[in-house]
Amino acid sequence: MDRREGSHQAVPDLHRLADEIREIGFSCQRCGACCRPGAGDSGTVFASHEEVAALVESGAGSWEEVARPYPEFLTTANGAEVTFGWCVRHEGGRCRFLSGRGCTAYDARPWICRTYPFALVDGELAVSDCPGLGSPITPEDALSLARDLVGRARSEAADEERVKAACAAARIPEGKRCVIDSSGARILKD
Question: How many Å apart are CA 8 and CA 11, to the nearest integer?
């Protein structure tokens, strides 16, 4: 599963969402499976401009060390290639922040990492395969996770609007590769 799920426009009731999470159950097993590609899963973790900036500001590394352009590019009429965001870098077949002790960028991790294995798709709870599913979860932890899911949905919707505005303003030179994110257009070095 590509970690950039569908539309995030509709936001469900917080308490209904927490009840759904409790019914499913979840407890992180700290196995790191979500930090590595798996069967049919590229392990690609989409990150907004703001999320990459937060990782950089946390001391996780430079922009280039932390992120890479989202791998799907579109070709424009003038031969430029454009993608619309960033992904957390992988090293050695896993997220570069996964260590033997867990996530080295835990406090600055992107929304997807905070809410995995859950996501909201068209306002409905979507669940990815994870060894921690089915484990008991307290009402407080379920509500906290539901709040994070709603925060993620709102953040992603706002980011999507900023990216649309940046697209409208972008002027990409002929034949160049570019990332358009909420901060504008960034021409990539050859």
Answer: 7
Q: What is the mean pLDDT of residues 163-184?
A: 93
Asked whether the predicted pLDDT for residue 168 surpasses 60, the reply is yes
| Residues 43 and 35 sit within 8 Å (Cβ to Cβ) | yes
Task: Give yes or no for a contact between 119 and 149, defined as CB atoms under 8 angstroms apart.
Answer: yes
Is residue 183 a contact partner of residue 49, using CB atoms and an 8 Å limit?
yes
Give the span between the Cα atoms of 94 and 44, in whole angstroms.
10
Structure token digits, residue 64:
């280039």
* Residue 43 predicted with pLDDT over 90: no
- For tokens 């992904």, the residue is 87
Contact 12, 120 (CB under 8 A): yes
Cα gap 26→28, rounded to integer Å: 7
- Are 60 and 132 in contact by the 8 Å Cβ rule? The answer is no
What does the DSSP 8-state code read for residue 89?
A: -
pLDDT digits (tens, 9 = 90+) for 92-151: 888 999 988 789 999 999 999 999 999 999 889 999 999 999 999 999 999 999 999 999
d(CA 163, CA 182): 4
